[in-house]
Design a protein that fits this description.
The protein is an alpha+beta fold and 91 residues long. It has two helices and six strands; from the N terminus they run E-E-E-E-H-E-E-H. It has one domain (3-84). Strand 5 (57-68) and strand 6 form a beta hairpin.
Length: 91
């Protein structure tokens, strides 16, 4: 079973964000809420889509992650680049 999290982009500045368990958006992929199983992932995405307009994000979608000690890490090269750079880095 593949674990998944929800990612989107903030409208104000285009930054990549991740949905947390509390329903907030964070720039830190390791703080994202992880769904395990299709029903859980579908529910997580539905929650993100409901927050889409209210929280000023666009295009939420599920992304596969691997977990190490309960912490999500992007599973694909595309998502590693979105999460850690080089684009969008603030340092």
């Amino acid at each position: 079973m593949t674990a998944q999290i929800v990612t989107a982009n903030r409208l104000g500045d285009g930054q990549v964000v991740y949905l947390t368990q509390g329903g907030a958006w964070t720039r830190q992929v390791v703080q994202a809420e992880t769904a395990r199983g299709q029903a859980s992932a579908s529910a997580l995405l539905a929650r993100a889509e409901a927050l889409d307009q209210a929280t000023r994000v666009v295009g939420p979608y599920l992304m596969a992650v691997s977990e190490e000690a309960g912490v999500p890490h992007p599973a694909s090269n595309r998502e590693v680049i979105r999460a850690f750079g080089p684009s969008g880095r603030e340092d």
